[in-house]
Please model this.
Amino acid sequence: TPVGEKILRHAQEMLSLLEAIDREAALAKGLQGGEIRVASFRSIATHVLPEVIADFRKTYPAIALSLTEYRGDYGSEHALREGRVDVGFTCLPLGDEFESWELFRDEYVVLFPPAAILPDRPLTWADLAAYPMILPPETDYCSVLIRDHFARLQLPLSAAYHITEDSTIVGMVMRGLGITIMTRLAAEPLPPQIQVRPLPTPLERVICVTVLANALHPPAVYAFLDTLKAHLKKHPHPLLKQPVCANSK
Model:
């Protein structure tokens, strides 16, 4: 109702004020308390963050850390912009209101069914065109990146299936229903029978850690960023091109 909409706006303003009070309190506590809120997408949340969070908790046991997982890249960006998280993992080029550090690059590869007979040479685009293609929905960030790659190369691309979950796509490839293009990190864990080959023309996604550029960040945010960069330097991920940790601006 119109009255309900007015009340809802007031309630949202009250919640925003409460969050601002919490942030001010966290600043006062320094590294002896407070909270850091992290947003990520599935592959980073699964294969990178658990060890980073374990290191962070060991060093800063008094700081609470929450992790929210979003589908694709847009969720982290929106959560950062709306102040719902302090740190986000992103791939998309972002606007000037963000500050990002490149961490590593994740290569896109082609996954073939176990029974596929592949040539004993580098793949061509014609080799890929001989199979049905399985891709994420057209609005998915990875799907956009793949379609843009094909467009730059002036290659046709049509998907026989649009599937949201990476694990479902891998299962369909395993059953011989088609091939897919997926990043190495997102594809893990892969059944050993799946055949993995490089793209004829390479494609990568750049994974960054991102914060709001002009926000008042508590010390816990900088402690988390330092822990993340130190962990990646000491324990490089075997599937990723390792880490640049360079400011993107």
